[in-house]
């Protein structure tokens, strides 16, 4: 079986793929101090608790935090007796090479999302990922990542606002009952919710105008359903798009004999 590890700036997701479907997914906070032994104790405890018997023999990693990759490599070597594929490294082949400015390094999360989206939905896509940053990835007709947009993430924006203005409290991100808030929390929630509705809609519209071809919008990330409430921002929401992309890249490397 395949262990897919998606490490973002805030959270790390572990998923087990049995060859036909995802049989388990767990999430933990991203901490570069965590050792391979700690990862294994955490993972094996959850597997035992859910009575999941998985003979993991292959591992693929996507990480936007370079400092955690070493211990994840050790995890794969020590406990699963394999050399992991690491997206973005030269030995990890991609189904479609990105077409960006020479010398530009494309984040592994964006490569993985592009691969997963193209495999499931075809080309001419905008992939919106609500993570620590809110990213917009443009996937061409042939499946190549050809650029995109990076905006501050929802929670990062709220945290920054709280720190910059001491009188403003922490608030949860939710859809407000009305636009005009009558207290501080409601005002902040309205600003974040409607501000990001506008950000996503306007960014996607401008990408479509510049791209010059009909495009579909695919959303992923935990907050995507919230911003799609009553507003047709996305054509599809795919909770496991990144994990699917890791499976696609892993299978491509196997097919190429890598």
From TrEMBL:
Any one GO molecular function term: pantothenate kinase activity
Keyword tags: ATP-binding, Coenzyme A biosynthesis, Cytoplasm, Kinase, Metal-binding, Nucleotide-binding, Potassium, Transferase
Binding site for ATP: 6-13, 132
Co-factor(s): K(+); NH4(+)
CDD domains with a match to the protein in the record: ASKHA_NBD_PanK-III (cd24015)
Enzyme Commission number: 2.7.1.33
Metabolic or biological pathway: Cofactor biosynthesis; coenzyme A biosynthesis; CoA from (R)-pantothenate: step 1/5
Catalytic residues as annotated in Swiss-Prot or TrEMBL: 109
Coiled-coil ranges (or none): none
Annotated K(+) binding sites: 129
Subcellular compartments: Cytoplasm
Reactions listed under catalytic activity: (R)-pantothenate + ATP = (R)-4'-phosphopantothenate + ADP + H(+)
Primary localisation category: cytoplasm
Residue sites binding substrate per the record: 107-110, 184
A single GO cellular-component term on record: cytoplasm
Cofactor remark from the record: A monovalent cation. Ammonium or potassium.
Keyword GTP-binding: no
Any single GO BP term: coenzyme A biosynthetic process
Similarity field: Belongs to the type III pantothenate kinase family.
Free-text function comment from the UniProt entry: Catalyzes the phosphorylation of pantothenate (Pan), the first step in CoA biosynthesis.
Subunit structure: Homodimer.
Protein name per UniProt: Type III pantothenate kinase
